[in-house]
């Protein structure tokens, strides 16, 4: 339908006012297109309900979607299905399965035991991985390279890392002393910043100049993030199997945000979890980021189980929950 990715890339990340303005500008056309595609050859509309993201996320963008969803419900006389967008990323496999949601705003590790039942094993204590990727890419000035001028920070680091030596720099992995499943990416970001400053001072790098070892540092950052994710995931697998000994196999799914599009991270998770009998299942990169397909599918799952359905007469009580 519509994507905001290119514009957000130009801004070096998502800016809430820009995102909500783009939502407002394009949602009418998107809704019209969706409604038109739902009408069969007899002119009958096949929509039974309207699913919409109500949490979590940026308040202004959520409000735009909720307002238009309510209008469509009233126009068609159908109920509303409020959706938690992080749950929507997760729900496409047979339960139970392990879920890792890694994006620019979130990092969650949990077990999906049902459509509305999630066991949280760990979460980020500070930055999200995508946020760390974007900030490191900006600090490295990767957009000054023509090949990375129109891509996100995460994609730029992945591309630059492909030609780099990850052993050249040591990017410290955080939380090694804590035996839990939580994450921290601020530590990786700060460790990288210290390396950048030291290298710039040593080589006299100024202005728009790039570090001589920029590709090597990107490779080191990517390895550090992949290793940190894998270490916590493996701990989560062992913990859950110990708690639920009857579970012989879990599916492992990476689903959220640009980080889930990173092929190196996917391969690392697949290689690391495979020997534990955990299969990596991931959607194509274009469906890893926030999208309407996952929200609609979550709506179908809830509709078929009669979970969280809001009738027309109660639409006014539905509100957003940004956090």
TrEMBL record:
<dbReference type="InterPro" id="IPR000905">
    <property type="entry name" value="Gcp-like_dom"/>
</dbReference>
<dbReference type="Pfam" id="PF00814">
    <property type="entry name" value="TsaD"/>
</dbReference>
<keyword id="KW-0808">Transferase</keyword>
<keyword id="KW-0819">tRNA processing</keyword>
<feature type="domain" description="Gcp-like">
    <location>
        <begin position="3"/>
        <end position="297"/>
    </location>
</feature>
<keyword id="KW-0479">Metal-binding</keyword>
<dbReference type="InterPro" id="IPR017861">
    <property type="entry name" value="KAE1/TsaD"/>
</dbReference>
<dbReference type="GO" id="GO:0061711">
    <property type="term" value="F:tRNA N(6)-L-threonylcarbamoyladenine synthase activity"/>
</dbReference>
<dbReference type="GO" id="GO:0008033">
    <property type="term" value="P:tRNA processing"/>
</dbReference>
<keyword id="KW-0012">Acyltransferase</keyword>
<dbReference type="GO" id="GO:0046872">
    <property type="term" value="F:metal ion binding"/>
</dbReference>
<protein>
    <recommendedName>
        <fullName>N(6)-L-threonylcarbamoyladenine synthase</fullName>
        <ecNumber>2.3.1.234</ecNumber>
    </recommendedName>
</protein>
<dbReference type="InterPro" id="IPR043129">
    <property type="entry name" value="ATPase_NBD"/>
</dbReference>
